Amino acid sequence: MNLQQLRYVVATAEHRTMTDAARSLYIAQPALSRAIRDLERELGMTLFARSGRGVVVTAQGRRVVKLAREVLDAVHEIEGLANHGAVTEAELRIASTPSLEPGLAGRLLPAYAAEHPGVRVHIVRCDGRDAVVSAIRDQRADLGLTDLPVPTDLITHPLERQEIVLISPPGLDLPNPVPMGKLHGMRLALPARGSMRRRELDAMFGKYAVTPVVVLETDERNGWLNAVRAGQASLLWYRGMAEQAGRAGLVVRSLEPALRRVIAVVHARRRLPIIAQDFLATAEKGTAA
């Protein structure tokens, strides 16, 4: 048994199909299947069972996958220690949505960089919460910054609660705060239908018995702002974006009752590299302050 075989086992367990696992490992699917079969023969146990077009982890396999993750995490941690000595090698990958990136770049990263100047931080830009979750699961990012909730296979570290506000073009006759009932018939730019964020907003509209007029449906944040700048629609977004909206000449109003979302750092259920642990400690320390 070797580390490569352990990586194969973990990737297969995470992706649940040989094809997707092989793609994530940049190897051919037959080669991965042979490697798994060879390891099963070596161990004298069945790690994966076929289920339709995918695979499921057996009871014995779950134990092996858990131990394999622990071994690989320990190796990554040792590599992280080495990277602390060779500062040009250390890179921390953080997935973030465009809405939260300004706060990440403006507050968290400077505090982290001050304590860890040798670590290069790469921001993995994601269209939304679903994309952040995918980046973590696909191991394209060590950490993610997003609003909650996220699937239960990820670990969450809540940092703050951000207010949801109404961003509108100038000239609308609206009070501040805006009662939820005023959203009925209002022209809004919304996330794409079927997305997690859109489902949450639709549930909120149903709760307050309001039906807005949907002018634009997209997950592209620039499209939202462009629609508001053009006077075509209003937008529900984070208070943290209010400064950007104000510079664009838009009007920001609170909602009544107030809406808030929990912002958190999220990661997979595995031991984090030391540089990621350090970032999490810096973020939580900033929250406590």
Report the uncertain regions.
none
Distance between the termini: 47 Å
Structural class: alpha/beta
**Helix-residue proportion:** 40-55%
Count every beta strand, where a strand is a DSSP E run of 2 or more residues. 13
The fraction of residues in strands falls at 15-25%
Q: What's the total helix number?
A: 10
Largest sheet: 9 strands, mixed
Q: Radius of gyration over alpha carbons?
A: 23 Å
Element-level helix/strand string: HHHEEHEHEHEEEEHEHEHEEEH
Describe the model.
There is one protein chain. The protein is 45% helix and 25% strand. With 289 residues, the chain is α/β, with parallel strands linked by helices. Strand 8 (187-190), helix 7 and strand 9 (213-217) form a beta-alpha-beta unit. Helix 1 packs across helix 2 (18-25). 29% of the residues are buried.
How would the blueprint of this fold be written?
Layout: H1 3-15, H2 18-25, H3 29-43, E1 48-51, E2 54-57, H4 59-85, E3 91-96, H5 101-115, E4 120-125, H6 129-137, E5 143-147, E6 154-168, E7 178-179, E8 187-190, H7 196-207, E9 213-217, H8 221-229, E10 234-238, H9 242-247, E11 251-253, E12 255-256, E13 259-268, H10 274-288
Helix pairs in contact: 1-2, 1-4, 2-3
Structural descriptors:
289 residues, alpha/beta, nine-stranded mixed beta sheet, two-stranded antiparallel ribbon, 10 helices
